[in-house]
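Internal tracking record. Fields below are filled automatically when a chain is submitted to the structure queue. Please do not edit lines marked as system-generated. If the sequence contains nonstandard residues, flag them in the REMARKS field before resubmitting.
Queue: standard
Priority: normal
Entity type: single polypeptide chain
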Amino acid sequence: MEEYTDSGEDKNIYSDDDNDYFTISTQNNRTSKNIDSSPLDPKRLAEEISQIQPKHEKEKKKLFESYYKIRENEENGADNHCFKFNKMYTDLKFNYSVLVSGFGSKIRLIETFVSEFCTDGPTIHFKGYLPNSSVRDLLYKITFSLFGINRTIATPIGHCNFIKSIFESSSKDINKIRQTFGGEFNYGVPDHVYVIIHNIDGYSLRNETSQLTLSLLATIPQINMIASLDAIGAQLLWDNRMLANFNWTTYSMPTYQPYELELSYHVNTKGSGGSGKTSSGTNKNLQPSNILTVLKSLTEISTDIFKELLAYLIEKKKNRIEFKILFDICRDAFLVSSESGLKTQLREFIDHKIIIQKEIGDTTFLIIPIETSVMEIILSQLVNSNP
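SYSTEM-GENERATED OUTPUT FOLLOWS
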């Protein structure tokens, strides 16, 4: 059994792409409240955090070990009822999904459980705390890692149903799937697959489509889902149908360990200035309903331009585009004939701060400060409303 160690191998993991918005947009309202609200440099933040001395390490180690080490009882000998890892594994085998809650980072705790107990099948790990993560990434990872299928399905729900059909397929059906979609299927269809989701309540997963897709994934008999939960009130994400699909058995397992890895992707909190911007450069006030309300007041051409923009960003998994690239796309689609015409069509989006324009050298960038998953929701509703 792995002994708990407070190693620092996961520290100081930063991605430039996670901070695109705050890197290229530094527009602040110069009021007395936010004069000093410039973003904190990630490297300096990491240095400051590294100076914090850990406390109560012995107690935290003892607590960590209590979750998997059998506690000796003077009268009754080994008390197996205290062996939480054993109970978690038993629940998985009875087709429950395991939800781990409690204060403190639970990444190492869950990884220890998976490495020691979940050895009878492949494991798929998904980092829900990443600000740019998407449920589509998880679905693609499952189909590619398990079956070698290098394709994505149109919608997350459709992709989930496709995965379910593979697990329900006979050998003849597998051959048809291989002929249609490609893939390897070197090991056939596994009897057990462990899907581990760190932070199922991550910001980019806090939408109905993502949670419904994950709940449908949990209904596949061969998939054993293990997830961690951190945000207060996060269970409000699920309605009765989702709860029935997940079929959770919940374990409170606080570790009191710092959220070093999770928070390394959530920097620049000082720079948000209370404006509603998240640390990943997205704007939590830009909800799909708000953007769709603005679009209703715009012309059909403006809406079509916005759809072309969303489609490009979703495909590239980015939140910014060069103005010239967008102009080429819109010109090829016969939406505009000049750069000045495109600028006119984009003015309303810029005024509502749905699109942020930024000059870097001689290049003009257009930024949409929302998550890819939110873009997908908006594009889906736009396409469905205008078939």
